[in-house]
Amino acid sequence: MDQTAKQTTNQQHPIGIYLKVWALLFVLSTLSYMVDYFQFQGYLRWTLVLIFMFLKAGFIISIFMHLGWERYALKCTLLLPPLAIGVLIWLMAMEADYTFSSRQLFLGQ
């Protein structure tokens, strides 16, 4: 058996990285809880909540779902469609806001 075949059959990820990411997820969850504890309001609150949410989701997908060790093509296949959907939702929300504000402007209250 050649060296590359032997490496692929005996490949294991070190448990230390799982424990470090678990601790980091705990810290991010604590920071997310602190946003509510300190009663942040408005855009700051939602910006912090979304940042912590995306960081936690990224670590979970990358490490615990083993996407960090996959090929680039598979990463693009899994991550680009949700990103495209998110961009389209954002564009629709901007258009809806523009339509709503123009209706208020021209048709009155």
Automatic annotation (TrEMBL):
Compartments reported by the entry: Cell membrane
Any one annotated GO CC term: plasma membrane
Statement: the UniProt record of this protein carries the keyword Zinc: no
Keywords, in A-Z order: Cell membrane, Membrane, Transmembrane, Transmembrane helix
Membrane topology: Multi-pass membrane protein
Main location: membrane
Stretches that traverse the bilayer: 21-40, 46-65, 72-93
Name under which the protein is recorded: Small integral membrane protein
Record organism: marine gamma proteobacterium HTCC2143
